[in-house]
Amino acid sequence: MENPYKLDNTLYHLMMKVITDNDLPPRKEYVIQKEGVDIIPSSIELSAVDINLVSTMSREYVIKTIIDIKDYYDYILLNYTSLKYY
To answer: Taking a C-beta distance cutoff of 8 angstroms, is the pair 46, 11 a contact?
Structure first.
């Protein structure tokens, strides 16, 4: 995988696009496939999303907007303890 500090589309960037009403890039630009598992990389910047979620309308749908569950996945694992709203 590339240097995580230089990735353009981490979960932080995608969530901020949703929060600020900007369009998401095509799915193939942010989902990395490894051994049959789809991964959306994260970074330390994700901790800053909590502050922005406090004032976001429908904040419980931010992740759902990024991950189209019904079309691609039966199960989703999130590994980030600070996301209090999900």
So the answer is: yes
Cβ within 8 Å of residue 5, ≥6 positions away: 43
Q: Where are the alpha helices (DSSP H) in 20-78?
A: 49-53, 62-66, 69-72
pTM, rounded to two decimals: 0.76
Q: Alpha-carbon distance 9 to 30, whole Å? A: 5
Contact call for residues 40 and 32 (beta carbons, < 8 A): yes
Q: pLDDT by residue (tens digit) across 64-75?
A: 888 876 677 777
Q: pLDDT for 7-45, tens place per residue?
A: 888 888 999 999 899 999 998 888 888 898 888 888 888
Q: Alpha helices of 10-68 — where are they, by DSSP H?
A: 11-19, 49-53, 62-66
Which 8-state DSSP code applies to residue 38?
A: E
Tokens of 1: 């995988």
Q: How many residues does the chain have?
A: 86
